[in-house]
Design goal:
- This protein is an alpha+beta fold.
- Helices cover 37% and strands 26% of the residues.
- The chain is built from seven helices and 15 strands.
- It has helices at 2-22, 42-58, 88-92, 160-173, 186-195, 208-220, 241-257; strands at 31-32, 39-40, 63-66, 71-72, 79-86, 99-106, 109-117, 122-127, 132-134, 137-138, 151-154, 179-181, 200-204, 224-228, 234-238.
- It has an eight-stranded mixed sheet with strand order 4-3-5-6-7-8-9-10, sandwiched between helices. It has a five-stranded mixed sheet with strand order 12-11-13-15-14, sandwiched between helices. A two-stranded antiparallel ribbon has the order 1-2.
- The chain is globular.
Length: 265
């Protein structure tokens, strides 16, 4: 899968060049998707077009699923999962925390993952069974075993009712952990779990393109990733199985069941 990894990075960097040409300037072609606070712009669309073109030329039999609408059915059981710009709100506000995310899935599962932050020139890469790296340096999750010592990353939905439930959970979780971080780009949150910048991450309302590449990064860096039960779809990633179990219990109770404070004691 070395050639596939190199292709994924090349496509991500090509998209990154497109995005950097827009970054810091007034948004062009601005529109919204799931809600008035869920934007998309010409930068997202053009970045996906570049990725789609490169992948289609190099791997014509592979399928492609992109956030901005790219859809190609696979002829060989392999599908590329693409988020051309994860963290669009950050991007539009001129904040540095955004990324290109590209994953390859085959009949055996996730095979290749690349998450690129063009602003900081940080490229996180993983291949199934071969570990994970950032800019060529091997990375590994932390050894954090407990919630009270954990730096936990999270993200929030664009839907108001879901945000209200997430805020309620946050008030219960915050006293139990070292601290909370909200970067605004799930792909980078997962990459940061993989390289030890945070100990864990959870978020509901994610799509496959938000988490596919990051999921492989965490797993290949020695971490644990699981799907949160219920709807909307969510992902929880942690450095250790013990930490994952503790965090998942609180997140499941708070978001799925809407239980009171006593049930979270």
């Amino acid at each position: 899968m070395t050639d596939d990894l190199a292709l994924a990075e090349r496509a991500a960097r090509a998209a990154g060049e497109v995005l950097m040409s827009y970054f810091g300037h007034a948004a062009e072609g601005l529109d919204v998707k799931s809600s008035p606070t869920d934007p998309v712009s010409d930068a997202d669309r053009e970045a996906e077009e570049v990725i789609h073109r490169i992948l289609a030329e190099e791997r014509p039999d592979d399928g492609i699923i992109g956030e901005e609408g790219a859809r190609t059915a696979p002829a060989n059981g392999r599908t590329w999962i693409v988020d051309p710009l994860d963290g669009t709100v950050n991007f539009l506000y001129g904040m540095r925390t955004w990324a290109v995310s590209i994953a390859l899935e085959d009949p055996d599962g996730l095979a290749v993952g690349v998450v690129l932050n063009p602003v900081d020139d940080e490229c996180f890469r993983a291949v199934r069974g071969e570990g994970a790296a950032m800019n060529g340096r091997r990375i590994h999750v932390t050894e954090c075993p407990s919630l009270d010592r954990a730096m936990v990353a999270t993200g929030f939905s664009y839907e108001a009712d879901q945000r209200a439930r997430q805020a309620e959970l946050l008030t219960r979780l915050l006293p139990r952990v070292r601290d909370i971080r909200r970067a605004g780009a799930a792909a980078l949150d997962l990459a940061y779990v993989a390289c030890g910048r945070v100990d864990a991450f959870y978020e509901r309302g994610l799509k496959r393109w938000d988490e596919a590449a990051g999921r492989l990064l965490v797993e290949e860096a020695g971490g644990v990733v699981s799907d949160l039960r219920g709807e909307p779809h969510g992902v929880l990633a942690a450095a250790t199985p013990a930490l994952a179990a503790l965090l998942e219990q609180v997140v499941d109770q708070g978001l799925d069941l809407g239980v009171g404070e006593a049930a979270l004691e």
